Each structure stands twice: as structure tokens, then as C-alpha cells.
Amino acid sequence: DYEEGSFTPVYYFDGTTSGVTQPSNRVGRYTKIGNRVLFNMWITGTTNTSTSGYLQIGGLPYLTDSGGTSYTAFSSWVYAGFTNHEEIIFRSNPASDRIQVQRAGSSVFASEMGQSANYMIAGNYMTS
To answer: What is the CA radius of gyration of the chain?
Structure first.
């Protein structure tokens, strides 16, 4: 089982895209081998910070595993988009196509974001 493809990352605030201005450049590529998905994405552009709530990035090509391997931290490079970006982690959500943006013990909220985004995320995860 082998597949290559692309996807478009999507911002969610408090679980919805309603009222969210998506950054202008959102590019994702992936390779699926068996139940393992390897991916990388780049997001840059402006968004709105008037939307409240916590941030998730959706659009992963396959749902993450819902078992004990479901929480995976991904590698990232952040140039702009978050205050105190050295504390930001990107991690999977179980049985989801979304990445949770988080600091240790707490979600990242819209009020902690700048309008300008420029970052890359890469990693791999297991599907069900």
C-alpha cells in the first residue's frame, strides 16, 4: 500500500472555520506507506486574530490512529505567527485530521497569534 499526494492545510478556531481568514499560501505533501503517513506542510500569509478560541490545523490526508500511538509531536520551524514561538508544539489529535497547536499544558489561542504566519511542519503518524 503506497500513495503520494498533496493536501491543503486549513485553520480551525474552536473547531470551526467560520469567520476564519485562511493564510494565502498553504501547501502540504504526503507519502503513505501501509498505515504510516509522512507529511510536510508550509503555511505563510495573513490571518485574522479577531476570531477567538484555540487553533488547530486541519486537512491531513488521513485520520490519525485512535489507539495508544495517536499522540505524535511533529517537527516544526516557526519564523512568524506566534508570540513566544519557541514554546509552541504541533501534535496530532487522536482519530482526527487535525494538528493541535499547543504550549505545554495549554492550547494556543487566537490572541497569541500575529496576523502574519510563516512556518513549516513535518512528521509522520499512524492511521487506523
So the answer is: 14
Max intra-chain CA distance, the chain: 43
Per DSSP (E only), the strands in the chain are: 2-7, 10-13, 25-33, 36-46, 55-58, 73-82, 89-92, 99-103, 106-107, 113-126
Q: Are 41 and 11 in contact (CB under 8 A)?
A: no
pLDDT single digits (tens) 32-59 = 999 999 999 999 988 876 667 888 999 9
C-alpha cell at 30: 504526503
- The 8-class DSSP code of residue 111 comes to G
- CA-to-CA distance for 21 and 107, rounded, in angstroms? 20
Grid cell, residue 97, equals 485530521
